[in-house]
Amino acid sequence: MKLWATIRKDIRILLRDRLGLSLMFGMPVILVIVVTSIQNSTFQLLTKKNVTMLLYNHDTGALSAQFAQAVRNIGMFRVLTVPEKDSKSVVSAMRVNDAMLALEIPVGFSRQLAVRAKHTAGKALNSFGLDGDTLTGPAGVPDLVNLYCSPSFQESVRLSVLGSLSGTLQAMESRLVLRNVYVAINEKPLPDSVENEMLNAQPGIKAITTGNGNATVIPNATQHNVPAWTIFAMFFIVISLSGSVIREKMSGSFIRLKTLPTNYYVALLSKQITYLAVTTLQAVVIFAIGIFLFPYINLPVLRLPSHMWSLLLVVLVCGWCAVNYAICIGVVARTPEQANGFAAISIVILAALGGLMVPSFAMPASLKTMMAISPFHWCLEAFYRLFLEGGGIADVMHNVLLLLFISACLQITTHIILKRKNLI
Amino acid sequence: MAVTNLPAVRIHNLGFKYSGQEHLFLSDLNLEIAVGERFGLFGPNGAGKTTLMSLMTGLLRCDEGGVELMGRRVRASDKKVNRLFGFVPQEYALYTELTPVENLQFFGAWAGMSPRQIRKRSAELLGILGLREVSNKAVKHFSGGMKRRVNLAIGVIHDPGILFLDEPTVGVDVQSRLGIVEYLQSLCNNGTTLIYTSHQLSEAELLCERIAFIDEGKIVACGEMKALLATRGQHDLEGLFLSLTGKEFRN
Predict the structure, then answer these.
(1) Could you give the 3-state DSSP secondary structure of residue B69?
(2) How is the beta sheet containing A146-149 ordered, strand by strand?
(3) Interchain pair B110, A261: CB under 8 A
(4) Partner-chain contact A256 B57, CB within 8 Å
(5) CATH 3.40.1710 in chain A, residues?
(6) Class of A49-200 in CATH
(7) What is the pTM of this model?
(8) Mean pLDDT value across residues A127-144
(9) Which DSSP letter does residue A363 get?
(10) Chain B residues with beta carbon closer than 8 angstroms to that of A253
(11) pLDDT higher than 80, residue B111
């Protein structure tokens, strides 16, 4: 009766706090949509020809035309061929065309590439014990092409672009070397069929996503972001709940509660139940958005794990951990300002440590050890086991137990502080 | 029968100091308040009235001596002791987001009442205190006087035998004050023990039979109001107050 009356009181107060509700539901939903959209566009950056490249071909040889076509065939760029201009105007042309990259093929490209190929072929023949002297040319040929990159172009993507262009150039040079060697040995041109057979049969690489044997989920921005930002949303209640605890603690109503024949733990238990329901509802809302709304805004649809009971367990344990953290802050802090400030900053720090913002494998070693204290890390790992690896209850049990341990520590801390402050 | 002979409140050799203080803030306090008595506790700001009330209600713990309510020693969060009294603190001890009815439902449940008892008692109290028409409006929209009346209603929802009132009419209009005083008088007529602090001395004259003045942590005078007035040659409580505590500002 007392507990039910307290839960009803907490629900009523919560429902009348529109700002708090919008913080707990509206903000995380916006965050999930925005972050997933941004990450999705990054995922698609190099696969859907979203990068514009200006192409300046100053060379008139056949090889430069072949190279330009090969660059188009890579499939990463939207190539705009620009009339001949001097290098100084490249930067302004990039701005005008909103291009991140510009590729300049200088005069003499075809000739230099041919010379390089001859030189390499000659060295190869000499190493076979054949006479390759007729093919050797000058070594140390300067760079063949110039690639201009916008300063805002991400380093990781720039390296990927360089790798692709370098591979294309390498393939052209290999073809020329092969032709030269063949002519030198057989004194006739290399047949097209042989050339294609030798050069086009590239070694295949099969990318395999690790996980449970029956996992069919392909990792994408949605599968990564929805679980991650659901955890963030759950911990976002820390601001509202710790504020609620401290407001109650500071108000006259707390004095009255202490003089009534009911233990304050009833009030804390009520808050735990009420806000656990809130965190569960947050997860339901965000997952529903991933399933039903995302396809309409051109984002990959969220695929829920097949082990729904495991998902429910992880949602409840993560939510309970967030609730305990909030209550602990509310009990420790002396003013709402202290609670709000600490809650907001600590959530961001714990989220960063937990791998929500930067993948945990990319963190420095010193921070990796600190990751263990962040409940975000254990929550995120448990969600990824279910959403990305197709795991079941056994796969998340380790994380669940650790989160329960963190929750127990928070509860004990709360109890000690309540006792020390003579609040119970 | 022995229980009925016990005083409602018994304070014996009470000493108390706040943490960090060297000397006792309240020292060697002795006081008995009989069952059904209307007792007023007065003194300048910072004299120790609210501290003493907090000690009597178990919100603070005595360093020396002790307090008993109906023969039971007061301890923090003691359910049996907490059932004996009601408390109307100086602050609005309620949830302003809730309506008066919702506040009474919640605090009634915490006082150990059944939903049926709460419904019946709430209807009665809201009628007596003139809150029936606004019983379903959030308290945050109420005037100061209305909030005070809700504050009082919550303090008496469980019909306590002893009622502690810490400045229950501060900041309210004349009508609300009269309404509250009349209701408190009716409670006393029904046998409720009233322990009351206020700076509204004219109101106290209407309400209290016996009074005590507390200053600098000590009881400086205690007795029947009429007898104290006569002893000090004063006509009203304000004169008596000033004669006992002086005219200097207190910080």
Answers:
(1) strand
(2) A77-82, A51-57, A101-105, A146-149
(3) yes
(4) no
(5) 49-200
(6) alpha beta
(7) 0.79
(8) 63
(9) S
(10) 93-95
(11) yes
